[in-house]
């Protein structure tokens, strides 16, 4: 039956926001599959954190842009734990080089769409099908799917159009799967972070230090932390938003606010 510790898959759980989400979910009583692309040591260290918090952690290497790898991720999860109660589509990459949209090439576009959009789209499809079967079998109840998008879903940065397009696509992914999965009792959420202090934003730290601390980019004048994003995920994961689905949860220090 659907009792016992719940199980989450967190893509890109080895570092940054994903790592924060894994640790917070373990603290909230989840066993967690820590997906990663290449950084096995980091993923194993995060699994150790899960164990320290009384949970079970499993590191699974899978490039989410690849069909076989996505299947491997789901099979490994079901093989180890027999259920999936929560999918957090977190893994994502920035362009290797920020390039003006009048110059930017197709290679970067294909890479970002593959990892940031196609990967979550088809992983969500795969996991949703499995969740429907698991609900029917009475193994899980009220599973959820979360997408970590970005303020780039609606903010135009002309030197990383590929990233913005991939994140805008995620916003539609959430609407689509929300509409399709509600009848099965699966809620879907978009968590939309602002500027968060991770490896991804390391190369632009000085620029954002100035924008946040001196120029008032965000009403709350500090960098976001992975733990800020993780708290929103835990709220969903612990059933605090049962009558909300398709909801966008801004975790951005108020960046989205228009002021006059
Ligand atoms: P990060 O520190 O660079 O970590 C990226 C994570 O994704 C790593 O765990 C990495 O695994 C994994 N990953 C990369 N490519 C992958 C692939 N093809 N398949 C599976 N896993 C892959 O990034 P972050 O800042 O935590 O960002 C996490 C998510 O939040 C991304 O979707 C990002 O777009 C979004 N976001 C970030 C910010 C921000 O300011 N940082 C703001 C808004 C949204 P390895 O360790 O193996 O490399």
Which labels suit this protein?
3-ketoacyl-ACP reductase; binds NADP nicotinamide-adenine-dinucleotide phosphate; alpha/beta; about 15% strand; about 260 residues; oxidoreductase activity
Helix/strand/pairing category: alpha/beta
**CATH structural architecture:** 3-Layer(aba) Sandwich
Report the end-to-end length measured between terminal Cα atoms: 54 Å
Low-pLDDT parts are none
Helix content: 40-55%
Q: Give the strand order of the largest sheet, numbering strands 1, 2, ... along the chain.
A: 3-2-1-4-5-6-7
Shape, per Cα inertia axes: globular
Superfamily (CATH H level) name: NAD(P)-binding Rossmann-like Domain
SSE order: EHEHEHEHEHEHHE
Biggest sheet layout: 7 strands, parallel
What is the β-strand count? 7
CATH topology: Rossmann fold
Mean pLDDT: 97
Beta-strand portion reads 5-15%
CATH class: Alpha Beta
Descriptive notes:
- The protein is 44% helix and 15% strand.
- It is α/β, with parallel strands linked by helices and 260 residues long.
- It has a single domain (6-251), classed as Rossmann fold.
- Strands 3-2-1-4-5-6-7 form a seven-stranded parallel sheet, with helices on both faces.
- Strand 5, helix 5 (161-181) and strand 6 form a beta-alpha-beta unit.
- 45% of the residues are buried.
- The mean pLDDT is 97.
- The site of NADP nicotinamide-adenine-dinucleotide phosphate (NAP) has 30 residues, from helix 1 and strand 2.
């Amino acid at each position: 039956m659907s009792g016992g510790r719940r199980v989450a898959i967190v893509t890109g759980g080895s570092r940054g926001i994903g790592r924060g989400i894994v640790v917070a979910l373990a603290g909230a009583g989840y066993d967690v599959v820590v997906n990663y692309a290449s950084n096995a040591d980091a993923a194993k260290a995060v699994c150790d954190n899960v164990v320290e918090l009384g949970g079970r952690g499993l590191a699974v290497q899978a490039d989410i842009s690849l069909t076989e790898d996505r299947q491997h991720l789901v099979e490994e999860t079901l093989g180890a734990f027999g259920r999936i109660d929560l999918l957090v589509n977190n893994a994502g990459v920035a362009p290797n080089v920020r390039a003006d949209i009048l110059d930017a090439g197709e290679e970067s576009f294909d890479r970002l769409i593959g990892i940031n959009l196609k990967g979550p789209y088809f992983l969500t499809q795969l996991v949703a099908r499995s969740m429907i079967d698991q609900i029917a079998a009475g193994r899980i109840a009220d599973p959820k799917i979360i997408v970590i998008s970005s303020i780039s879903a609606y903010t135009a940065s002309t030197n990383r159009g590929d990233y913005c397009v991939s994140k805008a696509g995620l916003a539609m992914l959430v609407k689509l799967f929300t509409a399709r999965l509600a009848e099965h009792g699966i809620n879907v959420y978009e968590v939309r972070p602002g500027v968060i202090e991770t490896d991804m934003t390391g190369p632009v730290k000085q620029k954002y230090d100035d924008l946040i601390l001196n120029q008032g980019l965000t009403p709350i004048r500090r960098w976001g932390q992975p733990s800020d994003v993780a708290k929103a995920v835990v709220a969903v994961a612990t059933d605090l938003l049962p009558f909300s689905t398709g909801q966008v949860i801004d975790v951005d220090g108020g960046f989205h606010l228009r002021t006059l």
